[in-house]
Amino acid sequence: MSPNAPSPERRLMHSRATLVQVYARDDGLFDVEAELRDTKTRDMQLSAGVRKAGEPVHDMLLHLVVDTQLNILEAGSATRAMPYPGHCEQHGEAYGRLKGLNLLKGFRAAVKQQLSGLRGCTHLTELCQVLPTAVIQAFAGVVIDTREGSDDGQPPFQLDRCHALRRDGAVVQAHYPRWYRQGEARVAAPAAAPATSS
Questions:
Q1: Which of 97-101, 126-130, 172-176 is least confident?
Q2: SS3 letters for the chain?
Q3: How far apart are the first and last CA of the chain?
Q4: Is a pLDDT exceeding 90 seen at residue 72?
Q5: Nearest to 46 by CA among 91, 85, 96, 104
Q6: Domains (range + CATH), the chain
Q7: How far from 73 is each of 4, 31, 101, 109, CA to CA, in Å?
Q8: Of 74, 176, 188, 189, which sits 20 to 30 A from 22 (CA to CA)?
Q9: This model's pTM is above 0.85
Q10: Does the structure show a pLDDT above 50 at 7?
């Protein structure tokens, strides 16, 4: 299904940009830096004064150090622009609680349990949600074996992790034939009953 065509009469109001960068370190570990930035196309009156159009309302950073098993060895955050200076950034070392978590094993649930609501910052906690797949992308083919002909007897990491890479699907049959398995025919969802007039 294609997205709806945008209205020709629309006006940009708000932009949120997220950026995740992963760096290989000489000690065999990896730095993960995730940023979130919100900007407006108009001047905005905030408690601390007017924030000019294009200046960030939110500018936040998460920094992690991870190992090859995706264990978080160090974690922290910085709030560089915020609507309530002197308050928004006063969550202490809340994001240090990410230390000890694993990005592949219950990470999102642990973040929700430890940092949602009053325990952290809405925007930084939301930013945490993109970290697992971003780091996996950085590790793909370098740390994580994504090849068809792996010698360890294990299927490539990415199989059965999304609809396109299901092991009974066409992509796996074509590109990872060793791991293809014949699946049962999909059962279509029942059609909605037609509305009746009363």
A1: 172-176
A2: CCCCCCCCCCCCCEEEEEEEEEEECCCCCEEEEEEEEEEECCCEEECCEEECCCCEEEEEEEEEEECCCCEEEEEEEEEEECCCCCCCCCCCCHHHHHCCCECCCCHHHHHHHHHCHHHCCHHHHHHHCCHHHHHHHHHECCCECCCCCCCCCCCCCCCCCCHHHCCCCHHHHHHCHHHCCCCCCCCCCCCCCCCCCC
A3: 33
A4: yes
A5: 85
A6: 14-139 (3.90.1010), 145-183 (no CATH)
A7: 44, 10, 8, 18
A8: 176
A9: no
A10: yes
Q: Which amino acid is at 136?
A: I
Are residues 22 and 53 in contact, defined by beta-carbon separation less than 8 angstroms?
A: no
What the block records as the tokens of 21 is 């960068």
Q: What is the rounded CA–CA span in Å between residue 91 and residue 79?
A: 10
Q: Give the residue carrying structure tokens 């970290």.
A: 131
Whole-angstrom CA distances from 38 to 56, 77, 134, 162 are 5, 17, 20, 30
